[in-house]
């Protein structure tokens, strides 16, 4: 049995892991550059917009300008470009249109440069640009002689783009919708060319502003508009809950009001963001600082207030999240798994904020919540100086893009952040719920260790966690399934020589033991196999028929044989060197033949070629032996002895000579008295085997 050690490298992910940082980069110039909004355009482009006072960025006109930052998902900057006039210009919102343009909106404070006109102090300014090169397509200013500002853009359908913010003007483009006092809610409908279709205002005698527009019903073109109000009269008659409240305004595509509601407590309640859930309910994220009304508790100075409302603006539930210090929500997006990613500014480290910030006036707090308001995870980003969240974007693959402003030079920030604030942009990756199945095959009698867990025939399934196994550093949960490979059974047979034996895997096979079984280790699939082995024996090599032609004294003798037994083909080797089944041109005498079959089984045969002219006994042609005290003399009359070997009765070779003469001399002292066998071969191919005594 073997123990196999295995490591896994699988791109799989684990639930509820905090996000890992893929990259962190800073974009901007030598002066102040601040992001306010971010979108993912066509899945291939990250767009951030805000304001810039850096003169070295292309397009700078003076003061603060609209700033457009175009990145690819790898964090490579395609371009930074500014648009504006000689005074203060700031982009607060950006949307991609089905026609391919990017729409940016905010406000402008002066005519000149890219700004073709100005009605008053600050006007709403909208521009359309080509997202691929940043080229300006058209621009429009909108407003009256007072302050006008755009905070939100919303695309409803072809020909209906809605911009919203606030106005203090009572003339020019807002003359038909007079101010109620202070800053009023301003909502306008325009088409893709920037032509205004309709404008409405709502408000009271104090300040209001719009922060967000979301679709209401799936069909019908109704929208929910969210923002803040300080008023309790006119359109907010009797609705004031405290110093500042969050309002919910429902309008249709023609900007006709359906209802207006406010929610909040006795203090300042500020709107942060809102998301529409799949069941036509909404999650609102705000900032609260006073207990009362629907706000049942306060954790610290400022808390995150999470509220769920229905399509009519009624509160279904609410809760506060925070620590002892300030916690202010900024923007929320859906995560890839349908939960919520919320970015806030915070410096708390107690109560609901169970992690420690880096320090400074605030850090960027990123949290994941479920749609019931439960915190799944939370993580701070920033350094030891001030860090403030700006915008957030997510995609369907689990990536989170975050922009912020930071003055820090440590932790998540580079020491090169010397021209703060800039567009500090991070790409994060959240480890989604993901399970990977992994099948591995092992031999039936083996075991395998995977990340410290053992699997075998008795334990074929299990789960292991691969820490940091993903290419982004996330963990992996892997379901292991072991498939067992049983031993393979096979039969084998071998034919061997009639009188031989075979040793295989330390087992002797002979005529007394012809069958056995044994294991083979690590065969083709790496597992053992069981082999049933059998030997069978060939018939002995025998001469089935012989043809001998006598010699007439001139070397005309022949020998021919026909074999049986063993296995064909046969190989022949005569003592004359001939290699066929028959040999001719022989003088009278004795000749030997060695036959080898297809299994290399071998047997020797001896044949005598008689003479038709012989007048003396055959023995008279044999060699003669003579001995004296010092020598043994072997004389073979009429023959040249080419080979001579002498053996004792135990088969041990005593000596071997190649005299190439008719007489051979042996030293007497090489031998002790006894019986010996001598084998001689002649130049004519004759071989004699004779016993003699010394």
Describe the structure.
- The chain is built from no helices and 52 strands.
- The chain starts with a strand and ends with a strand.
- The protein is mostly beta strands and 694 residues long.
- Strand 51 (675-682) and strand 52 form a beta hairpin.
- Mean pLDDT is 89; it is low at 9-16 and 614-620.
Give the arrangement of secondary structure elements.
Layout (H helix, E strand, L loop, with lengths): L2 E4 L13 E8 L5 E9 L3 E8 L12 E7 L5 E7 L5 E8 L5 E7 L14 E7 L6 E7 L5 E10 L2 E8 L16 E7 L5 E7 L5 E8 L7 E7 L15 E7 L5 E7 L6 E7 L5 E7 L14 E7 L5 E7 L5 E8 L5 E7 L16 E7 L5 E7 L5 E8 L4 E8 L16 E7 L5 E9 L3 E4 L2 E3 L5 E6 L9 E10 L2 E9 L5 E3 L2 E3 L5 E6 L8 E9 L4 E8 L7 E8 L6 E4 L7 E5 L2 E8 L5 E8 L14 E4 L3 E5 L5 E7 L5 E5 L5 E5 L7 E8 L4 E7 L1
Parallel strand pairs: 1-31, 30-34, 35-39
Antiparallel strand pairs: 2-29, 3-4, 4-5, 5-6, 7-8, 8-9, 9-10, 11-12, 12-13, 13-14, 15-16, 16-17, 17-18, 19-20, 20-21, 21-22, 23-24, 24-25, 25-26, 27-28, 28-29, 31-32, 33-34, 36-37, 38-39, 40-41, 41-43, 42-44, 44-45, 46-47, 47-50, 48-49, 48-51, 51-52
Our measurement of the CA-to-CA distance between the termini, rounded to an integer number of angstroms, reads: 65 Å
Arithmetic mean of pLDDT = 89
Quick one: overall form? rod-shaped
Structural class: mainly beta
- Computed CA radius of gyration, to the nearest angstrom: 52 Å
Most strands sheet: 4 strands, antiparallel
The number of distinct β-strands equals: 52
Strand content: over 45%
Spatial order of strands in the largest sheet = 2-29-28-27
